Amino acid sequence: MILLCELLKNWPCTASGGNIRAEVRGVTDHSAEVVPGSVFVVRKGRRSDGTAHIPEALRNGAVAVVTDTPDPPELPPDVAAVSVPDAADFLAHACSAFYGHPSRELEVIAVTGTNGKTTVTHFIGQILKAAGIKAAVLGTLGLWVDGEKQDIGLPALTTVPPTHLQRVLRHCADSGVTHIALEASSLGLEGGRLGHCRITRGVFLNIGKDHYGEHGGEAAYLRAKARLADLSDRIILNRDDPAILKLCEGKSAGWTFGGSPDGGNHIWVEDAGSGSWAAGCGDERTLLPAPVGGKHNRLNAAASLAAAVSLGFGIRSCRAGLEGLKLPEGRMQETGLSGVRVIVDYAHTPDALKAVLESLALEAGGRIITVFGCGGDRDKEKRPEMGEIAAFYSSSVWVTSDNPRNEDPLQIISDILGGIGGEGPNHRAEPDRELAIRRAIAEAAHGDIVLIAGKGHESGQTTAGVTRPFSDFEVARRHLEDIHSNSGSDTVQSTDGIWYDGGEME
Asked: What are phi and psi of 167, to 5 degrees?
C-alpha cells in the first residue's frame, strides 16, 4: 500500500476534495477492476472514453479519480479529484510507485521488431537459465519463469499495460527472478505501457509491414518503435537490417548482431555446414550443433546472444543455452504422418512468411503446400504481397480465413488472391480454415511439407466479433489421427515429444 499523497508527490498535478492521506489499495484505468481504496485513472481509449466509467469506479470504492481533461467531472466530496497533464503517463508512474518500482530490482531486456519478438525473448530466457540465472519471459505467450508457464491472470496482449506489467515485475522480483525478457510491441510503446519501467537493454530486431493502419501510417509506426531507444539504458541493433540502422541513427548502440563476423561489440551466428552453427564475437568463436533451422532463427539466436553478452555473460558460458535452444509454441511447431511433415507457424507478415518458406525450401524433399490467410481490420496492403510470396515458394496454396474480425472473409481472400492472379489449379480459396487444413493435408504425399501459417499458438478464431476455440495445431493433429485410425499403419509424432498411436497417448 501507499498513501495518495506519496503517489502524487513530485508529480505535476492539482488535487481537491477527498482524503489526500487515503491508503491506496490499487491503481487502474478499468472501472471493473476498482476495489475499495483504488485510484481510478481516466483515459481516452481507441473505442471509448474512460469518463463514462467514472460512476462504476465510484460504486466500486475509488478514493481518487485522475483525469487529464480541461473540464474534470464533478465528484463526491469524499473522493479526491486529481488533474494531471497526461493520464497515460501518470498511470505508468502510479503503477510503478504502487508496486515499489520493481524494475529497479531487475535486469529488464525489452525486444522490439516486426517479427521474432516471441522467439528472441524465449531464446534469451533459455540462454540465461542454462547460465544459472533465474529468468522470466513476458509477452505473447504469457509469463514464463525458468521455462515454466505461470498462471497469474494476464490479458492476451503482446505488451501488457502498466497495471499488469508492474504487478508482474513485482511478482518476479519477489520470486527471486533477476532478469526478465519482454516483448515491446509498437502499440505497447505508443500507448506508454513501458513508461516508468527501467529497461536495461533494448533490442531492435527488424522493421517490416505490420500495424500501419492501427498507427495511422508507416511514419507513426516507426516513431513508436523508436521510443524503445529512449527508454533503454543501452540498445542492441540488427546490423543486417538497414531500416533498423536508419531508425536508430544518432543513437549510441552498445552492441550489434548479425549473420556474419565483424569487429567490435558485434555478435554473429552463421551456418557452419553439416548441421552446425558457428557463433562468435571478435576473436572468440565457438562451434555447436544447430538446435533449430532457418536463417531467420540464426539471426534470432544472434540477437539473444548479444543481449546475454551485453549483460556480462561470455559466449562460452552461453554455449549450453545455445545448443539447447527450443522454439516457443506456434513457431515451426511440427507434427506429421507417413512422411508428410505438417508445420504450424505464426508467420503473419510478408517478411515472416518469406523467412519460413525460404527455410523450408532448403530442406523440402517434395512439395510445399501452404495454408494461410490474413487478419481482418489490419494492414490490407500486405495481403497481395503475402499471396505472391506464398505462390512463389509453394507448389500449392490454400487461401483461407485468419481472424476476419469485422471484415468479409471472402473480400480478404480476394485481396490475397489479387497478388497471384486469382484462383487457379494450384491456388485455391477455402474460407473454412479447418476444411482448408484438412484438404491441404489430404493433398500431401510422402516427402511433402504442409505449412499452416498465420495463427501459430492462437487458440481462437474471431469472426464478426465472435471468438470461437480454434487451434491450427490441434486441427492438424486431429486430422492426422483420423487418417491413422482409418489406415492403422503409422504413428503420429508431434514436437512436444508425445507419440500418438491410434489416438492413444503412450
From this structure: -65, -40
